[in-house]
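Cross-posting from the modeling subforum.

Setting up a comparison between two proteins and wanted a second pair of eyes on the formatting. Protein 1 (sequence, then structure tokens):
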Amino acid sequence: MRAITLVDLDDTLFQTLRKCPADVPHDRLTPLGFAADGAPLSYATPRQMQFIQWLAETSHMVPVTARSLDALRRAHIPFKAAVCAHGGVVLDENSEVDIIWAAIIAEKAARHATELAALSDAIAMEAQARSIAIRARVLMEGDLPLYTLAKHADADHAALFAVVDAAVPALPPGWTDHRNGNNVALMPPYLGKEHAVAHILPALRAQYPDAPVIGIGDSLTDAPFMSLCDYAMMPPRSQLAGAMFHAH
């Protein structure tokens, strides 16, 4: 183990077929993310597969993902410890739920359950009024309400964003509006990958005191957890890279 890598998954290590590079033949793609029924949903290119193998062989690799715990376990990548559900769940070195973090999240989640449901209802009502096929729901991890998620049935992100903007013209202070592809996640202030990473980093640094910590991600909401690391990496064709390069 030469480094600690805290790495996002979707659109960083793999992506949906629609987002795969056009110059890579389908028969060279490796399915790594699967639906509950076993159908493949996400694929890695040969270069991504080599990157995953390199990370697994040369670092202590910790996924840091928006995926639910169930969806994470359906991703065929090597890991033990992990951060999932936008930071709502932490797995320890034995792939068991971190009970200390779970208690912290449970106490905070209870305070925001009503707000999350109200946001979901507002989006659903706006979508119904416009006759647009959008599913809005409160994302649960076990019995904990973590955030509100909205998704368009036909991947029309422009229509999705228009409905969310009309239904939720402003979020309460400290909330996060995360948009990436065909999803909108409205997250309360306590939820975020960076909070969970801040929770696990002290023990990782104590265990591997001289190991550099590398944060790898693609989206704007990955930047805060990446900033806690010693180094940061991103795919050049990503939301985060686009915002950085466009700013210059």
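Protein 2 (same layout):
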Amino acid sequence: MQRTVRRTLAAVTASSLLALAPVAATRAVVGPEVVTIHGFEDHDDIFYEAFVCPGQAESPYYYDYRLGGARGHQATGFQFDDTGVMAGLTAEVKDPTTLSSVTWSTLHPDLPVNANPDGYALAQYYPNNFGDDDGYWFAISPLFAGGSGWQGSGDLADIVFQWAFLDIETDEVDPTRGFQGTVAELANDYLSNGKAAYVGFAYGCTGRTYYMDNLRVTSAGSDRIYDFEGARSGAYISATLEHRTDAPVIRDVTRINLIHGQDHYLLGDGYGFSDGVVPSGWTAGTAQLHRRLYGSPSFTYAGARPYTETTYGQFHITPQRLTLYQLRTPPGAVFAGSVSKTLVVTVKRRISATLARDRVRRGRQIVVSGRIAPGDRDVTVTLQRRVDGRWYNLSSSRTTTGGYYQLSTLARTAGKKVLRVSVVTAKGNLGNVSPSLVVTVLRYRPPATRSVFVINAIPPTHPPVITIDDGTPPHDGHRLAFSSAQGDPGGPLPVRSWPQNLLEAHGD
């Protein structure tokens, strides 16, 4: 596919070509600015050039892309069906009077086919007094790329050009006007930077494909490095906002709220944006998921999935705490790599709560215990009661190792109470509340009283005494009687008694 270039140099002949002549650099600027050129997109400083090689017939050329460059990840270039046309670019120099260096790198996959120049260094200078000079200066000088592989160029700012002046009205070279010297020398001859100068290169006169990268243009007022990468692309994270399978997928999602223990699926794909050569459209490639865990200073690689022009790469996630996600597409042969927007996944804690007893007497303690997940230590939990549709704090505590807790409050009034436990936002998790608990507080009823009599028996200190009712020693036929009679108030009645062992000796 060919693209119309923004500006074309005038046709030239072999008689305008001169050899290289080194000139010392005048000034170098420290700390170059790196400018990324994506594919063949329009840029204020860069202009793509193409024209017929001296003494050859015109032939087709094509824009090309490559993974791997002299700087960065990629490079761009040109393919040629045959010899005859050279293609390349020029960069604008706003202060050509101080131009000190112009270098670049090229890759020629094939070896030279002949000893002819591969291309030409290009230079243009536009005076600012167009009233007197309705035209501009131009010059070219032959370039020989040499062998295959990435290689650096000479310094274009050192080239002593044989300049010619092109009259804009006649579109012809003015034979009366010429100048020999570098770009800076020509501008200084005018004692002016003019409207700017343009310097660069073009290859292709030997028909060899080539790729370009790392163009550096240095002057007193500017030091820029142009990094040629692939066309722009976009990476996208898509997902459902709700935790259900029939929810709609949102492209470029930036926030999802989950509860601890819930999993989710993220979808990734990429899009390529036209640079004037390749068209825009969904691309095929590899989606790389990166995540930044809570407390981590940077993103880390979390896996890769392929995607096509019509399908997503799918990622299963189970975040435990607040986690940031990015989808990245690595650079390919045509499109540059890209990074999606950052997706923030917040995670609420889970909290369980259990009543020690769901019925308690007024004046007793209501006790609730449970656990939070994740099971962090030293996280504040609060027991709350609902009154007239509002929740009021009753007591607070902190979790122990494993996330366990216990809370209590005094049952002050009778009736049914609706309680819950809340946990604060802390340590990478959003706060949450437990399911509601219902406890019944019974009215206070004092215990019933009753009399209790305790009889302490006095153990005997001697064997019991058995008497015979007629006062005679026991013998067969006598009736035995146990005396329990008490005497008069003065003491017990005198009773004749016989030891038990004697009775046992006589029998009944």
